Structure formats: C-alpha cells, structure tokens
C-alpha cells in the first residue's frame, strides 16, 4: 500500500502485483488465471443491460460465495440472458489491476487490497458493495514448543505477507501483549516470517517455523500436521465477526450497469442463504469447484474444520474494515487512509429489503 501513495507501504507491498498479496482473502500467490469459464444461459433468459459480466475470485474457501454461486448456477439464475465469465486470481494486486483495466467488472477480495486499490486510485477505482465472509483465521502453533499464548514470545511465527490482512492482525496482537517487533523486518520479541501460504505447511512440518497466523484452509492444514489452535481471531472481535472477504465493483461498471450489479448481489444474497441452510451440500459444492479449478480437492480433515470456522454473510462489517486500517496505521505500515466513499451499499440494501431482510451499515464510509 504505497504511500504517496496513501497507504504508505504496505510499503510497496500490495502495490506490486509481482508481490503476492492475497489469497484467501489473503493468502497468496501472484498470478491470475482467466478460466474462460462461462455459465450456461437458458434459451428464454432475458438479457440485462450487457451481454456478459466478468467476475473474479480466488480458488479458496473464504471465497465460497463465488465458488458455490457459480457452481450451483445461482448467479446465472438472477442474470437471465447475461452470461457470467469467471476468472480466478491468486493475488489481490492482480485482481485490482484486472478491475482497473476492465478485464473484470466485479470481484471477491479481502480488505487489505480493497483498501489499497481504493486509496491508490484516490477513491476512483472501486466500491465495496457487499460483504461475503467473516472469520477463518487462526494462530496455530507447535504444541511441543508453544504450550500457551505467552510462549509465542521468542518464537518464529509465519504470516502470509508483510502488510497483508493477517500480518497486520498479528502485529496488532503482538503490540497488545506489550511486546515489540519491527514491522518491516519482523524482528523483535517475536520473529515474524512472511511466507506464501502454499509453503507454510512444509515449513511448519520441517520445524523452520514454530507456528503461523494464517487463514483457512492453511490453518487446518497445520493442525493436520500436528499443530494446535492457540487462538481464533474471531475471539478478538465484537460479536466474533470481522471482514475477511468483500465484493467490489468497478465504479464505471456500477454506473453503466446497475441492473447487472443488482442481479449479482441478488445471486450473492441467495447463495449465502443457500450455503447457511445447506452447509454440507455447500461445503461439497465448494470443494468440487476447488477441485475443478486446482485439480485437487481438500481432504476431509482439512475441509471440515476450515469450513466450520468461516461465516458467510452479506454484511460487509464496515466498522471492522476501518479498524483493520487503524491497526495497520498503528503498526507503522500505513498512513491514515481516507476511506470515505469506499462503500456503496444502496444496491445491496435494495436487494435485502426486497428479501424482507434488515439493511446493513457502512460505518459512515458510504459514497452518498
């Protein structure tokens, strides 16, 4: 999050797509994949204001609303004759670049790259239009080396990347313990090692790290390797909820195709409703989508606990996004960003009202 750049670093961090920023709302690789996957449209489907809507998301459980909604045809049902073209990403910066270049119109993404994309464009690139998921982040440690949370001091703990959502959360927790760590280098009372979630399980297994503050399913993979959950980040937040995945849209697309945006949001709301009413079927659907995208499904010992720790919801939990930005500022990784206007929840609230549901709040950060 650059800084002039109003997100000072995340300093170079998230700005460069070559640096992995966010897979699983965080967890991370660096390239995108245009699947070219298009959903089938009913012959009598009525086309909306555009022939096609291009959506982006990560092949990860925290993006299960997108995985399941596409897999089960729930988005397509709302879009009628307008087709979906889906692309998957392994990094937040590459998804933001795709949105800015017009390669995608709507995306599922974590809070850090959403904040970075918004501030780096001086508030002109995107809007957050809905929440999608909460939770799914844990501190897991080697029980032979870490018996309790106080034993984390002096240990080597991994996070996905400098300045990413989990890294900021861990640095904030360390500060709350009264311990000192240099945010940039990761050196101090705790050694914070930044590494891709893909290699964290092997690093843990080899003993080169003592634990990790990571999103699912990486946390459950560490548990499967003998790790112990020391802390669920949800326990640190009011009502045990904090944003891990949002839905964003290009401001240009929102202005030109509000009917399509509303249809996608209806699909998201109905997908989340279906996920929560049918958790086992939804879990299987998400895993089937992951297998199709990555060639490998998650084993039950990883999938089951990971799935249970994620809450799928429509509320973007705007106050927690603002708090996450404050945590990054406190850690010295971020200049205080102006997030006023990052949300436009009017289309979502219209959908929720039509469904007889309560409207959601933007914590004073709305566009209107």
Summarize the structure.
The protein is 36% helix and 18% strand.
Largest sheet: 7 strands, mixed
Task: Encode the helix/strand succession as letters.
Answer: EEHHEHEHEEEHEHEHEEHHHHEHH
Shape: globular
The CATH C-level name of the largest domain is Alpha Beta
Task: Tell me the radius of gyration.
Answer: 19 Å
Structural class: alpha/beta
Return the CATH architecture of the largest domain. Answer: 3-Layer(aba) Sandwich
Separation, N- and C-terminal Cα atoms:
25 Å
Quantity of strands, as a count: 12
**If strands are numbered along the chain, what order do they take across the biggest sheet?**
1-3-2-4-11-5-12
- Total helix count? 13
The domain tally reads: 2
Helix-residue proportion: 25-40%
Determine the CATH topology of the largest domain. Answer: D-Maltodextrin-Binding Protein, domain 2
> What is the average per-residue confidence, as pLDDT, rounded to a whole number?
88
Kindly estimate the percentage of residues that lie in beta strands according to DSSP.
Answer: 15-25%
Low-confidence stretches: 1-33
Organism: Streptomyces lannensis
InterPro entries: ABC_SsuA_sub-bd (IPR010067), NrtA/CpmA_ABC-bd_dom (IPR044527)
Signal peptide: 1-27
Pfam family, one: NMT1_2
């Amino acid at each position: 999050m650059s800084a002039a750049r109003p997100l000072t670093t995340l300093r170079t961090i998230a700005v460069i797509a070559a640096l992995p920023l966010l897979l699983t709302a965080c967890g991370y690789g660096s390239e995108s994949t245009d699947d070219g996957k298009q959903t089938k449209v009913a012959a009598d489907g009525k086309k909306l204001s555009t022939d096609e809507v291009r959506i982006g998301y990560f092949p990860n459980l925290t993006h299960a609303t997108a995985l399941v909604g596409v897999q089960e045809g729930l988005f397509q049902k709302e879009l009628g004759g307008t087709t979906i073209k889906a692309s998957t990403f392994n990094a937040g910066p590459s998804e933001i670049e795709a949105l800015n270049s017009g390669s995608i119109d709507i995306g599922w993404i974590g809070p850090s790259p959403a904040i970075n994309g918004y501030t780096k464009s001086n508030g002109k690139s995107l809007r957050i239009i809905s929440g999608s998921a909460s939770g799914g982040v844990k501190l897991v440690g080697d029980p032979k080396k870490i018996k309790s949370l106080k034993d984390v001091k002096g240990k080597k703990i991994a996070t996905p990347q400098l300045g990413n959502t989990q890294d900021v959360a861990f640095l904030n927790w360390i500060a709350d313990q009264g311990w000192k760590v240099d945010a940039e280098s990761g050196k101090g009372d705790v050694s914070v090692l930044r590494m891709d979630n893909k290699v964290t399980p092997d690093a843990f297994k080899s003993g080169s790290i003592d634990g990790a503050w990571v999103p699912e399913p990486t946390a459950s993979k560490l548990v499967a390797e003998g790790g112990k959950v020391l802390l669920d980040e949800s326990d640190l937040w009011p009502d045990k909820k904090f944003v891990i995945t949002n839905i964003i849209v290009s401001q240009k697309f929102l202005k030109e195709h509000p009917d399509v945006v509303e249809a996608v949001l209806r699909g998201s709301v109905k997908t989340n409703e279906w996920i929560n009413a049918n958790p086992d079927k939804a879990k299987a659907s998400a895993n089937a989508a992951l297998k199709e995208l990555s060639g490998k499904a998650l084993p039950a010992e990883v999938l089951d606990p990971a799935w249970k720790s994620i809450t799928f919801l429509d509320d973007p939990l705007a106050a927690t996004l603002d708090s996450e930005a404050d945590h990054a500022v406190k850690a010295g990784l971020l200049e205080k960003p102006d997030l006023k206007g990052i949300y436009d929840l009017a289309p979502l609230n219209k959908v929720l009202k039509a469904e007889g549901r309560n409207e959601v709040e933007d914590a004073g950060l709305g566009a209107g």
